[in-house]
């Protein structure tokens, strides 16, 4: 979520009043804002997307809740020591969190372990361990519409009789100390992005948030006029018309068997009725196609932790496979491919298959990704129910990612086209009229230059490096992962370095290359990539032949509040994943909206950015998905590129020989070995096209006016990438609710009874 103070002031229309009031107290608002800790309760794009969605849902007047875990320790703080990443605990609650309100009155029990007893009256899950879920509510204000939604995060608490019910009479002290075991559930965020680690504590976290949330939703449904009780029992027929639940990836997939358990075991609904309601309630968003990221939980672990849920999953699977067998008799291979249970070695549950079968809608997050989901990853399921599969291209909130982080540009745009674009970003197309307006061109360039000077001062303060603010700011910030190819950027840096040294007199367009992002603590290769970037920076930044022509900076502890500083100052945005691997990306959109140009592959939302702005207004290079598929068919041979490309050979030889690690010449052997022998992401295959494309970037940068005109064309085409547009599509196509642009009256004005916002809309 990042910081909340400035976002709240902007959405409430109070920023100027607060700035002034604080100034009159002899304080500086910006200094005050810097004191707030980031709430870093997710890993990368997935968690930030959820935050943007909350802002858009409130701004569109949807009655929506965001549910998650209140981690005591969020994503680790990254320190760089001697070029290596070192993790520190993110004790973000140390000084308290003024934005949250604990709601102990809504505390709920969550059960684990135990066993299942079957009787004539149905299944009973008994002898369980209970953990309490304590909700904390954080307000989510819409933009200037007097709407405030809620984000509800669950914290784990041990019940007061924890470990004291049983025979522990003797060791009272130990029993109280053991309360920590239960409360560990919400202790810390697992720091993996795009990688599945099948740990018991992680499964506990996933079920914990699901079980608490579903009880909360059902409590709210029963309290509403729709949960009409027929004598004793609630009638759930209208449940899917009143409730929509969106599964953000497979992490909350246990919600599907949990809702079935509630309906069948507790509410005593017949299976078929319960299943119909469940399917119509859930929808699933897929966020990645990388096989190592797909959640596949061992059956033994689920059986131990959630025995009743395993039985329900088996029943769902049996009925699912019976249905497929009736459509495709004797096609055993299809049954194996489509089963929720993967046999062979340890039996595992494929959570994506569970989500597809248990949802009425499945979507990818960019056009190209949704196609890959349909035609490759889940092709058997799409063949069965093509109408279930949709696309919802991701977006970003223009409140945080323009108004808040780039007020200079936001104001400049407002002067030209008015202020309405903040709630309707498609209005940015009006900027096309000013693409040849010399004054506007100069003003856009001036705002960028001011942002660069400000960020350069920040860098000099934090990193003690002198930055040339007129150099091109070439920025690559995102999680460190092989598929995102920070290594390819690194090879380009080495190539530029070698060119400067080979011919120091030759004209060279000065660059400051900024790379930032966290590596999962257990991801060895990603940590080596960070070390390599820092080792290259060490050499480049201290070579007198290079001087101010080329500087390399690794940005420590990349997070939302740092993104808000670097993105407005960026000239060139690096979006260079291997085609077919980045589901969407959202950083790409933030850079586009803030007046950077993009160098990128035809991957994720880059494809649609090129479609909106015109391919000639992005620097697109490299293999397309088809080329990657063809290369896989032929077999990728890295050696061929090394032999054919002298500059690539020189760069690799320098890494291999210890040019960048003289104290330990073999330091980067693992990296070099990977690039030659098991590079799934084909860095060498795109290297030549990338370097040539970078030459075109430098050439255009020399012509400041032509560059800025291209920037304006990009900003004018960024309207599609508002999360407001994304959420309107979810609302229309999946949740079946109407957004309301009614501004409800402020609390100090009397409200018309007839002016209710959503008389009977679904709560998402």
UniProtKB/TrEMBL annotation:
GO terms for molecular function: glycogen phosphorylase activity; pyridoxal phosphate binding. Residues 738-764 are annotated as: Disordered. One of its GO terms (biological process) is glycogen catabolic process. Its EC number is 2.4.1.1. Its cofactor is pyridoxal 5'-phosphate. It catalyses: [(1->4)-alpha-D-glucosyl](n) + phosphate = [(1->4)-alpha-D-glucosyl](n-1) + alpha-D-glucose 1-phosphate. Keywords: Allosteric enzyme, Carbohydrate metabolism, Glycogen metabolism, Glycosyltransferase, Phosphoprotein, Pyridoxal phosphate, Transferase. It is an enzyme of class 2 (transferase). One of its GO terms (cellular component) is cytoplasm. Pfam families: Phosphorylase. Gene3D superfamilies: Glycogen Phosphorylase B. The modification N6-(pyridoxal phosphate)lysine is found at residue 590. NCBIfam families: P_ylase. Allosteric enzyme that catalyzes the rate-limiting step in glycogen catabolism, the phosphorolytic cleavage of glycogen to produce glucose-1-phosphate, and plays a central role in maintaining cellular and organismal glucose homeostasis. Homodimer; enzymatically active. Interacts with PPP1R3B; recruits the phosphatase PP1 which dephosphorylates and inactivates PYGL/glycogen phosphorylase. Belongs to the glycogen phosphorylase family. This is Alpha-1,4 glucan phosphorylase. It comes from Dasyornis broadbenti. The lineage of its organism: Eukaryota, Metazoa, Chordata, Craniata, Vertebrata. The gene is Pygl.
